[in-house]
Specification:
18 helices; elongated; about 15% strand; Rossmann fold; alpha/beta; Helicase, Ruva Protein, domain 3; Beta-Lactamase; five-stranded parallel beta sheet
């Protein structure tokens, strides 16, 4: 009598090995379809069944459909569906309890139409429910033994193990899908929240340039007054670029003194200073493979400027109190509301750091430079506040819109948003009227730089600025601008030439 080779692996050992693979996969669910196939194929082998299948319940149609099947008719069987309560599988799904039928011909619950249509001879069937949170999501069944013997009670325990594995895998897969969907929804929500609203030429140009630079690793310096939306532009650059799936870290450099700023940027080692009870990861380390946005970069003192320059040059830094170099791949976007070239000229900002940060600069216009965007912006903010308050019929009166268009908005878009929020809260809940807006259009807006100049120069400066704003409001249409200004179009053309406004 010949003995089997010691290297021969028995079918049971193979099945156990595959069962271990299944267990390791269930938690991660790399490929749910492949995993379910592996579960059913292993169940078929371990139980030496002729065929097996996994049916999932469609809660809308209340029907079971074949998700996975084995046996000679595994492809054809997927064309069939089973109603809840119909046949053995339908009864198990309906009642939530397993069934073992050793002779289907003697059981009135047997629905033989599928076997008959496929030309299959079925003797015995075992079916167990798959449950998630005590709710049936499908069934697993085996049909006949390969040797022709009926399925036994002890086989039911094994089948239940496989049903539990399948239900666990499906549950994990659904959780992962739910998390992915929530992430997609959150990104869409954030995308809507951080939109740059505007149709004026000036804002369109800035946004267009931002998209051009988004896919590079180039450092970007965003210039603009407070409230113009510098952080929004930085977020747009990050979201539109190749690093969008990685983190964007935001840090306001003006909010922290030098020691704390260094700690925030680079982190520290345990024991680096009193109170450093553990290691801290800095913002640069967190932003590895992503983007870091350094707002108010013009407020950074010379010592921190030197340390930041070293990171930009070498891509390496040290935690506070550490001596191990840390390499990072970070895209740097910075912003300032200061006249940074003047800061460099006066020695308050390092020239070499300025050139490192200012590979590409984007200049955000003030709100008074894009007056035509005020209606769009006000409606956008109003819709946000309407959702928050539930005042779905709230509108902005024409008089309020006119008041907003005549105001110079020193606080820019941020001030506009705050003014509308205040108007929504303090208004009558139906219509925002001029009195609801906390702005004073009678307030003089003469720049400090004009104090001490002659009346003629001040008047000319006012005319030049007023014509510029009006032309931007009309998108450069001189006829419309002349009508608003209540002057002849030919006179407007002469003024445009006199003040050299041809590029407006």
């Amino acid at each position: 009598m010949l003995s089997s080779s010691p290297n021969t692996i028995s079918p049971q050992e193979t099945s156990i090995a595959r069962l271990k693979v299944i267990s390791s996969w269930v938690s991660s669910v790399q490929d749910i379809d492949k995993l379910l196939e592996l579960i059913i194929e292993t169940a078929t082998q371990m139980m030496q069944a002729k065929a097996s299948s996994l049916l999932l319940l469609d809660p809308k149609t209340r029907q079971l459909y074949f998700k996975v099947a084995t046996g000679e008719k595994k492809s054809e069987v997927k064309d069939y569906k089973v109603k809840i309560g119909q046949g053995i599988a339908g009864r198990v799904a309906e009642k939530g309890t397993p069934l073992l039928i050793q002779d289907v011909k003697k059981d009135p619950r047997w629905y033989g139409e599928i076997s008959k249509s496929l030309g299959l001879e079925t003797r015995s069937i075992a079916c167990v429910p798959m449950k998630m949170n005590d709710e049936v999501i499908g069934v697993v069944q085996i049909i006949d033994k390969q040797d022709g013997s009926p399925i036994q009670n002890q086989d039911m325990q094994t089948l239940e193990v496989f049903a539990e594995l399948a239900a666990l895998a499906i549950g994990n897969a659904r959780k992962i899908d739910q998390v992915k969907q929530e992430n997609r929804d959150l990104k869409e929500e954030l995308g809507a929240k951080y939109q740059i609203i505007g149709e004026s030429k000036t804002i369109k140009k800035v946004v267009s340039d931002a998209f051009k630079v988004a896919n590079s690793k180039t450092t970007v310096l965003i210039l603009g007054d407070s409230g113009t939306g510098k952080e929004l532009l930085a977020r747009l650059i990050h979201r539109a670029g190749s690093r969008k799936d990685n983190i964007l870290v935001v840090l306001n450099c003006a909010a922290l003194p030098e020691t704390l700023l260094e700690d925030e940027l680079f982190g520290h080692e345990k024991g680096a200073f009193t109170g450093a009870v553990g290691r801290k990861t800095g913002k640069f380390e967190l932003a590895d493979k992503g983007t870091i946005f350094l707002d108010e970069i013009g407020e950074m003192n010379p010592g921190m400027q030197a340390k930041l320059l070293r990171v930009l040059q070498e891509g390496v830094f040290y935690r506070v109190g550490g001596n191990t170099p840390i390499s990072v791949d970070v895209r740097v976007v910075s912003a300032t509301n200061k006249n940074i070239t003047k800061e460099v000229k006066n020695g308050r900002f390092r020239e070499d750091l300025y050139y490192r940060l200012n590979v590409v600069s984007l200049n955000l216009p003030t709100l008074r430079e894009r007056i035509s965007d005020i209606p769009l912006l006000s409606e956008y903010f109003l819709n946000i506040f309407k959702k928050e308050t539930g005042a779905s019929n709230l509108r902005i009166s024409n008089e309020a819109k006119q008041k907003m268009m005549r105001y110079d908005w020193p606080g820019n878009v941020r001030e506009l948003r705050n003014a509308l929020e205040r108007a929504v809260v303090m208004g009558n809940g139906r219509e925002i009227v001029p009195e609801d807006l906390p702005i004073d259009i009678s307030r003089p807006s003469v720049p400090d730089s004009q104090i001490g100049t002659t009346m003629e120069k001040a008047v000319n400066n006012f005319k030049k600025e007023f014509i510029t704003l009006t032309l931007k409001h009309t998108g450069g249409n001189r006829s419309k601008a002349a009508k608003i200004l209540d002057i002849q179009r030919t006179y407007l053309s002469r003024l445009i030439s006199r003040y050299n406004l041809r590029d407006v």
